[in-house]
Design a protein that fits this description.
By secondary structure, the protein is of the alpha/beta class. Helix content is about 30%, strand content about 25%. It contains 16 helices and 19 strands. Helix 13 crosses helix 14, helix 13 runs parallel beside helix 15 and helix 14 packs across helix 15. The radius of gyration is 23 Å and the shape is globular. The termini are far apart. The relative contact order is 0.12.
Length: about 475
Amino acid sequence: MTASFNRLRARLHDGRILKVDDWSVADSETWGIIGTNGSGKTVLSRLFAGDVRLSEGDVSGLPDHVLYVSLEAQRELIERERHEDESDLMDRMDIGTLVSELLHPVDEVQDWIDKLRLGHLLEQGFRSLSTGESRKVLLVDAIRRKPELLTLDEPLEGLDAESRELLEEALSDLHASGQRMLWVANRLDELPHWVTHLAFVHDANLLMQGARDEVLNAAEVHALMHFDKPLSDFPPPLTDYRLADSEPLVRMVNTRIQYGERTLFDGLNWTVMPGQHWALTGPNGSGKTSLLQLITGDNPQCYRNELYLFGMKRGSGETIWDIKKHIGLVSSSLQWEYRATTNVLTTVISGLYDSIGLYQAAGDGDRRLAEQWLEIVGLHHKANQSLHHLSYGEQRLVLIARALIKQPPLLILDEPCQGLDDPSREMVLAFIRRLSEQQRITLLYVTHHAKEIPAGVSHHLRLGADTRQGFEIL
């Protein structure tokens, strides 16, 4: 059967109208959807599920059962798990839904659990998993339910190199077995070889469709999917938070992270001096985010360890705000937790006050500075829109502007390029290169893509290393 979409019009959250004049997808074809952040890729993919409200147009030949694996679906499940967290009522840690319960009956997907090496996670709570681990679990859950069409929205995002390789091979086998799939891509270099056709969407318009190479080689697609603008100068911060160059920003002494009987690393002695730029790498679940949360104060194990931040010993009477004012942060967990009802401009301003949402009047200087940063990341025209009406990638750019607005002594970038299209990723990497060439800001940079680490990042902490302690300082 061929799915057909003719003269479609649908209003998006931001008021734009999605336009699809004539698009047909045959069973024998495997399609990918490409485009820039906020272009309408996800909404276009949801046409197949029949849950997009149309103002006009004709649709026929839709599959009966469509499932989605996406960053948005991942966020919804994690949000549901957090809502059902009963730790306060139980007076102990509620680990939530076990992975084995989510994938029940496990024996039906045992081959996938083995392929993706998920066996050791079965008795862990889903909410305790790393970003990459939870992505793999969601995929296996979708495959278990045998959809007629499986839509994969950036399925490799957040996975370490080995996991990407394993998943690429497994999905290739799944495709060869006859499973229909639709691939939604931000990174063109991760499009699998078995995708035969592409739809290119830009600014809520399906601009081009056809054979893969024809679309990728089109001049218009090439121009829109590459970053070729000069990088704007960063505006000066309103407050200078710099500390003495002789004082460590971070000092950890014999640090250990342990969850139940599982120890991620032990005996870590790590010092970060001003002007040092560090890459933090390691496989999914090795403890990268947990380590960073010791610094930001979002992991209670910071009080079990001997930890010094910005000249203060944790647990010696300092407030969390004494710590956070020196830190800028971009991470998936922050993006998932940023549930405040707020517009884009207010979100960026909140970076000056280290809050989720803004709970005090912003001055004219705050607003002007936030507007400058939105201009730099290309989202000034969306300043008054709700943050939650933006695409995942656009939200990530807003949080990058939020982290940079005060140009703090310590900037923590936990996979900052997650969910970004090619031009946005190239722009953010240019930001990181510029920051790594100066010593005003110290970087802690987490990535699963070694090629994206700039030359100015000269220090390296690798977690999950094959050592007794579970880490290696290079």
